[in-house]
Amino acid sequence: MYAFSSIEKRIFAFESDFCSFFMAGIYIHIPFCKTRCTYCDFHSGTNLQLKKQYVKALCDEIGLRKKYLGNQPVKTIYFGGGTPSLLTTEELASVFDVLNRNFDLSQCEEVTLECNPDDLSANYVLGLKQLPINRLSIGVQSFNDVELRFVNRRHSAQQAIEAVKRCQRCGFVNISVDLMFGLPFQRVDSFNENLRIVTQLNVPHVSVYGLTFEQGTTIDRQRKQKIFVPTDEEVSILMYENAIQYLTSNGFEHYEISNFAKSGMRSKHNSSYWDGTHYLGIGSGAHSYNGVSRQWNVCDTRKYCLLRDYYEIETLSCEDVYNELIITNLRRKEGVDLEFLLCRFGERFYRYCRKNAQQYLQNELLVLKNNRLCLTQKGLLLSDSVIRDLMI
Ligand SMILES: C[S@@+](CC[C@H](N)C(=O)[O-])C[C@H]1O[C@@H](n2cnc3c(N)ncnc32)[C@H](O)[C@@H]1O
Ligand code: SF4
After folding, report:
1. Distance from the CA of 304 to the center of ligand 1, in angstroms?
2. Which pLDDT does position 78 carry in this prediction?
3. How far is the CA of 33 from the centre of ligand 2 (A)?
4. Which domains does the chain have, with CATH numbers?
């Protein structure tokens, strides 16, 4: 509901007159995992034999698409997955080499690698430190072994703790940890313990996602077969509220529905999706946006490796861009800037938004702050419905 929803997975940028002063982002998708977690429907497979061929295709695609961002310097790079930490440091170095030759990285501020704890050996982390990577996003999900085992994670709680500490010892400061709530067998006190441990680890960024049951996943089948009892909605809500309460009282800012950061440590890459920065998506299933059109690569690793007819393109209508603005901005603490909305989209869209927001302002799911429409704490829990009603 208010968690890692299908809406979240559709996050695209909206056309903004500000466009972050014409700095761009690059997303690189790595569609490989050693094993699949039962809840996950991200585009990824376990045939690692394709990896070498795939890295070559990534490098070729970077060359083919060097004009996509015009001459905008790149501000952020994000390796997402799947499991980007399955790339060797040599493979990552080869991708950086091609990126450097094709884009202006001189002003690049943030380079993130999504990592699984079991990949973060001392040697590997030392190797990462020699590369331009300056932010690690580590998928921990839980610090409870029963919960981890049930969803087929490849690491134990202790391994995850050691992995985070190892990265810190090697000099990585900007580390984000992903946690999930509403996992099978997860109780409120075990989730609270996760919050306590993550805070003690002293990482500056935490993402907290409520488990969603995606069609076709093992966990969804198990739920239908009643192999476990799903967490009650009220219990999930309590966990989410506990996360907000605990993390904000421990120095984190709750800056987006699922994201918490210490001062100055918000994810720059994700923030740029939310504020209209142009971005280029490289790799199978990756999306791109350059202010005029949206483009997405084929979600099939083998087909992608051939780099023939590998993408589709769609010119965005005004309604599409408006909808993207609602989806992305309502999720953020800063909300939707109504003055910007009026200037950018005109009277008709502005009136539509105001009219549909009215009921939510009355029942206090939305609040107006400095002419910005923001979700209240109560609204965060029902964000999908509010967002849907404000879309055209
Ligand atoms: C791209 S995924 C995985 C990154 C990395 N491979 C890992 O497993 O840690 C990013 C995050 O999405 C979250 N996630 C994936 N599927 C989810 C689901 N069905 N419900 C809630 N969160 C989910 C997990 O927290 C995960 O760490
Ligand atoms: S959660 Fe991460 S490791 Fe697990 S299947 Fe999804 S992408 Fe792969």
Report:
1. 23
2. 97
3. 6
4. 6-273 (3.20.20.70), 335-392 (no CATH)
